[in-house]
Amino acid sequence: MSEVDSIAMAVRGKEITGLDIYQTSAESITAVRVEELVSEMNADQPTGGTDMAYGKKDTQHLRFWKTTSSKAPIIIFVHGGSWRSGTNLDLIGSAKVDHLISKGYAFATVNYTLIPSITVEEQVQEVADSVGYLVKNAARLDFDPDRVILMGHSSGAHVVTLLGTDPSYVERAGISLDIIRGVISLDGSNYNALAEITDSPGPVADNTIYGLGSDPERLHAMSPTYHAHAPNAGAFLLLHVHRQGGVRQAVELVAALKAAGTDAVLRVFEGQGFEGHVQMLLRLGDPAYPATLVMDEWLRTHVPVD
């Protein structure tokens, strides 16, 4: 498949079903195209909203958007970047912000300190603390503190699925896991961090080792799949593109969540490797992108706007 064809397919993003989700192919992408995608992500920043600090560090800030609905659920977004790059504005994709606000959801996107300045464990705690800050200020910000949805992309998806399966982080932030009504994971990785090293050899596995090291006990502790025995967040939606390692681990996580009695679903869409990975971030929120309709229906079912 040519690079042009792979781009068009990822932008189209048709859903893939059945055994076809396992029929992945090797990615072919040039360094020039990678740079183009990174530039596109960095440029696609949302507008509006209100910036606020949730901690004392310069990195501990977020942006909040109010919706017209009073006491609305809130969607809190965590950006990716392999735990070591990006901000809450340049790795988010603006389409989803306007789309979800128009549906009646309040929205926030969280910044956090990057590794190696802190550990990934400390980073996850910072995100939990940002959720705690928002919930404790819900009356002032006019959203429902008992209906929180966490959404993350890439390593941000790892962070939100860990927060939704390991209650220790939110408990230290002074909130209960019960208020996390849903988790939406966008093409995440490291659901099973130890397996990531063999599932996704190359840059993804290298990033896992850089961020989490090579100690099996630590890799186990940082894997949402190994915490999925309950208690868990209310429901999980895993939206993935056609990446072999990501799909395999997503299937495994969904099985573990379901075994614990937690509602979980995986949906897979066109898009190879990094091309699909970035297009899902940028396109989600566009009604012409099939995953948007899947997300909308899932939200109506699990965390509807009153």
TrEMBL record:
Record-linked Gene3D superfamilies: alpha/beta hydrolase
Keyword presence, Methyltransferase: no
UniProt GO molecular function: arylformamidase activity
Domain BD-FAE-like: 67-166
SUPFAM superfamilies named in the record: alpha/beta-Hydrolases
Alphabetic keyword roster: Hydrolase
Protein name stated in the entry: Alpha/Beta hydrolase protein
Taxonomic source organism: Aspergillus caelatus
